[in-house]
Design goal:
This protein is mainly alpha-helical. 78% of the residues lie in helices and 0% in strands. It is built from 19 helices and no strands.
Length: 324
Amino acid sequence: DALGAHGRVLMVLRRFDEAAVAYERASGLAPDEPDYLLQLGKCRVALQQPEEALGPLRRVVTLDPDSAPALVALGDALFQAGQQDQAEEEYKRALEIDPELGPVQLAVARMHLGREEHAEAEAAFRRAAARPETEVDAAVALGNMLSDLDRQEAAVAAWAPAVEIASSDFALQMSHGAALCGLGRHGEALHSLERAVEARPEDGAALHALGECFIELSRWTQAADTLKRATEAQPDSAPTFVLLGTARRQLGRYDEAAAALARATELDPERLDTWIELARLTLEREDFEAAAAAYEKARALNPDDPKVLAGLAAALLGLGKEQE
């Protein structure tokens, strides 16, 4: 049972792709072992691969028709596959067998969520979160729902039990970090975003988010290093090049900042913050003519932006002119 034990550890760590490989191998050696098939199906559901989950889960239900966890997992796969009515039938069968089981409460929550009955879904998710066997899954699902409803404070609180246990869950750490950033809690967000980058070191979105968090904390060297990696991962992202330009400007690395911002203007010449950042850079270098030109570009995009108008006035003052 070494493969099964290895798979269980990976499931706890929410490393579902690796767990699926372990359970594929285990079920190949013991094709009628229900637990291997069940865990394999659950991995595929967690990886948003419902079509690959349906086969092993239907096999489990054939082998053990009264397995409430198997019926729930099959319902989850059907739900992901867009077969909501069939999913609810499996959930109801599980509810009849063991209504107090954590996975069954998760299923009830998903049924309510599918009907946009958010209060009922929240209550069921909280019941599932109180059960050890579904604490993490329910916390993640509840946090995701609350975040989608723009209840970010509540989402962060809901995710709290899961973020430490599932430290390598990329999606969870990214969602948690983004919500904290949106709440202005960048110091707390940093830990989750660093974990997301650790889970996927070459992911451009994660590197961008981490770099932006470093900027908010005025940690300019780390921001510049992280955002350089982000531009290598996503070389066509104008917002990433703008942030890289900002970090380099703050470090006094003006030529490198100018290069990053030039790339941003190539990628998206209609992006307001690119021209504002370029104007700030040239203003700091006392190139008042270039600063005025950049602010004029920004003013054309947003004529009433007070930061643009103030910056343009400063650039024109440096040129000995008055703003028109």
